[in-house]
Amino acid sequence: MAKKSVDMAVFQNWINTISNLLTAIKKLGGTADAFKNFNKQEVIDAVAELLVGKTDDLKLKFLMVIKESISITTSAFSKSLFTTSTNPKYYIWENFQKWILNKASDFIPEFKGTVKSLKLTKSMKDSEILAEIGESNIFSIDEACAIFKALTERQPNGEAGDLINNGYANIIYVRLDEKTVVPARVRWNFDNREWRLIARSFDDYSWFAVHSVLVRG
User: The pTM is what?
Assistant: First the structure.
């Protein structure tokens, strides 16, 4: 395989940009902890997106786009909404309460953005799905709560909409801490007329081809 050529002028420009950024951090009194935070993958991804621009070109192999762009805007709200709302009505599974709601901010910050919905075309484990969508499509706990709230409120009685409402999962990958990512999901329960919020351990389940995954739009 032929080695890809490198534009050395462009490469040097990027080296200079990174050097200038680190110098600026030092001037602002950057500590060892600040540099440690700068080295976190989510910070690196955010800086790269800011400098280069976001790419929407997911290299999908076993996932298929259902809805290309779903706009979401929420105001700040109390996380207690998930346990007190009657329209929509929620049922909170134990792991979702323990891993997601207990760790969420008391007041979930406002959220504005877009997501897209993907459908599995074959049974897949979490590691296979994440390999395809990339770690940039892992959401924070508060982001996941805001997205679940916004989308279920558009379909409070299980109507057709942006979430699949056939009893199967709408999955969001959520980062609990630096080492832990879990699939959180919401699904419509026909019998009890409620949205069920569930979280599972990573890779302990194979998702069938009927499930969907929400990623950044």
Answer: 0.74
